[in-house]
Amino acid sequence: MNKAVFLDRDGVLNHDKVDYVYTIAEFKIFEGVKEALMLFKKEGFKLIVITNQSGIAKGIYEPKDVYACFNYLQAETGHLIDEMYFCPHHPKFDQVCKCRKPGNQMILDAMLKYDIDPSQSYMIGDAQRDITAGIHSGVTTIHINNGKEWVENAHFSFPNLLAAAQFMVGYTFG
Ligand SMILES: [Mg+2]
Ligand SMILES: [Zn+2]
């Protein structure tokens, strides 16, 4: 089986905004992200982005905008991410779904596709819904504490992705 790091997008890989990030101009990648992704890859993790994109359900932007931001992220960080899953739904605008975090359908789909062992895998996010989705998937959870949201039940907490990656590499293999 394989192991994976499941990554929330906004607030973990790129700066979040109060409203939606859907243009490359507003897609500002955090310092240290490329180094963190390289560390994960070196240790053999699959890298999978798991992101809620309800701006699609609200008609603010389209899937092609989400892909354009992802392609930009890949180009800027060395094409290390294996796949991005996004939920385009919102319960008040189109449908109740199982993919929108805290639902974990995207994680379960990726685990099946990539033959992922949850006991060797991680979910990293800056919101409670990321941590909840990770816990329901049986992975170790890491909260990125960027000031957005206090989370009680994550296994670990770090100020940014690189700090998390450096810890994880030492924790798992040191
Ligand atoms: Mg986030
Ligand atoms: Zn959904």
* Poorly predicted ranges: none
**CATH-defined fold name:** Rossmann fold
Q: Any idea what the radius of gyration is?
A: 15 Å
What is the percent of helical residues?
25-40%
Overall pLDDT score: 96
Our measurement of the CA-to-CA distance between the termini, rounded to an integer number of angstroms, reads 21 Å
How do the helices and strands follow one another from N- to C-terminus?
Answer: EHEHEHEHEEH
* Total number of strands: 6
- Beta-strand residue percentage: 15-25%
CATH H-level name... which superfamily? HAD superfamily/HAD-like
Helix count, DSSP H or I runs of 4 or more residues: 5
Q: How many discrete domains?
A: 1
Shape-level CATH architecture:
3-Layer(aba) Sandwich
Helical/strand content category: alpha/beta
- Biggest β-sheet, characterized? 6 strands, parallel
Assigned CATH class: Alpha Beta
Q: Rough shape? A: globular
Kindly report the oligomeric state of this protein: single chain
Give a list of the ligands. Answer: magnesium ion, zinc ion
Task: Considering the chains and any ligands shown, give keywords for the structure.
174 residues, alpha/beta, Rossmann fold, 5 helices, 6 strands, binds magnesium ion, binds zinc ion
Structure description:
- The chain has a single domain (3-173), classed as HAD superfamily/HAD-like (Rossmann fold), CATH 3.40.50.1000.
- The protein has 5 helices and 6 strands, in the order E-H-E-H-E-H-E-H-E-E-H.
- The protein has helices at residues 33-42, 63-77, 105-114, 128-136, 161-173, and strands at 3-7, 45-52, 83-87, 122-125, 140-144, 156-158.
- The chain is globular.
- The protein has 174 residues and is α/β, with parallel strands linked by helices.
- Helix 2 links the parallel strand 2 and strand 3.
- Helix 1 runs parallel beside helix 5 (161-173).
- Strands 3-2-1-4-5-6 form a 6-stranded parallel β-sheet, sandwiched between helices.
